[in-house]
Design a protein that fits this description.
By secondary structure, the chain is an alpha/beta fold. It has two domains: about 5-150, Rossmann fold (3-Layer(aba) Sandwich); about 155-315, Alpha-Beta Complex (L-2-Hydroxyisocaproate Dehydrogenase, Chain A, domain 2). It has helices spanning about 20-35, 45-55, 100-115, 130-140, 155-170, 200-205, 215-235, 240-255, 300-315; strands at about 5, 10-15, 40, 65-70, 80-85, 120-125, 150, 175, 180, 190, 195, 200, 260, 265-270, 275-280, 280-285, 290. α5 (about 155-170) packs across α7 (about 215-235). The longest helix has 23 residues, at about 215-235. The protein is globular.
Length: about 325
């Protein structure tokens, strides 16, 4: 096995904690990626983890060689990446913040087990509310701030690019725009910095024949914010989109790509925000977050970002860690 002698980790070993819809979908996407040679699935229901491992393993002949098996917390010690999807599911009518008490309680049983194994890799939080749980995981794990990150608004940003690509009839990969703040109802579309291949968004819209910028931006931002609710209403859960987002984050970490992604990490003074994890564009590599990337925001966007941070702080303060 390929070892990193600096922290005694197997750089091609990943552990997935939680084998529900999201965990299983993420595991399937990761298997297809060819990034890892070993993947351990851990779940409170060991039989569920065994079933998912067996099912996903049957697709390995169509992908790249990888050992997939159900394990326990002792398998964490030499992993380079631990992903936590375990938690209560968001139900129709529930917000992500409604899950706080239930999922903080679950994290209080999971994170100490990780800490006992002296895990020294990157901890990626996917369970919701992801920003609050990233903050909780950081406090409970004792890991360096850069190594505890959340999937944040990576999926929301993909949804924004998808909506804009459809609106402008252009490849969504050419759209450069971010959703920032909470992965939830107080999220902000950072229109000030949005562009299509370097062309400011409003100019590109005019080029494509659209002039109602305010109306279109409001509609698109609402579609992005409400898309999870719409999916949950129709099929009870969301999991394929977030699985692709998690795979993308894994690529950035394993390949040390230094890619810029809007992951959730601890804020340390940017825009006057401290002491809470939320999503801002950041350079992500093998050790997690390297640094946040300065992003152009107008006064209204900054105000909304600060309110989003305060919403998260208020919710966390009501739930002792």
């Amino acid at each position: 096995m390929e070892k990193n002698c600096l922290n005694c980790t197997n750089v091609r070993k990943v552990v997935m904690i939680g084998c529900g819809f999201v965990g299983a979908a993420c595991s399937f996407a990761i298997m297809q990626s060819g990034l890892f040679s070993e993947m351990v699935l851990i779940d409170a229901d060991k039989s569920k983890a065994e079933g998912e491992a067996l099912d996903i393993s049957h697709g390995v002949p169509f992908a790249k060689p990888i050992k997939i098996y159900a394990g326990d917390y002792d398998d964490i010690k030499d992993a380079s990446l631990v992903i936590i999807t375990a938690g209560a599911n968001q139900k129709p009518g529930e917000t992500r913040l409604d899950l706080v008490k239930k999922n903080i309680s679950i994290f209080k049983s999971i994170i100490p087990e990780i800490k006992k194994r002296e895990f020294n890799g990157v901890l990626l939080i996917v369970a919701n509310p992801v920003d609050i749980l990233t903050t909780v995981a950081l406090k409970l794990s004792g890991l360096p701030e850069n190594k505890v990150i959340g999937s944040g608004t990576v999926l929301d940003t993909a949804r924004l690019k998808y909506e804009l690509g459809n609106h402008l009839n252009v490849d969504s990969r050419s759209v450069h725009a971010f959703i920032i703040g909470e992965h939830g109802d107080s999220e902000i579309a950072a229109w000030s910095s949005a562009n299509v291949s370097g062309i400011p968004l409003h100019k590109f819209c005019e080029m494509r024949g659209y002039c109602d910028h305010e109306g279109n931006m409001k509609r698109i931002a609402e579609n992005v914010k409400n898309s999870a609710y719409e999916i949950i209403k129709k099929k009870k859960a969301t999991y394929f989109g977030v699985a692709m987002a998690v795979k993308r984050i894994c690529e950035t970490i394993v390949r040390d790509e230094k890619s810029i992604l809007p992951i959730s990490s601890m804020m340390k003074g940017d825009f006057g925000i401290n002491g809470i994890s939320l999503s801002m564009p950041a350079i992500v590599g093998k050790d997690g977050v390297e640094c946040l990337v300065p992003i152009q925001l107008n006064e209204e966007e900054i105000s909304k970002l600060q309110k989003s941070a305060q919403t998260l702080k208020n919710t966390l303060s009501q739930n002792e860690v």
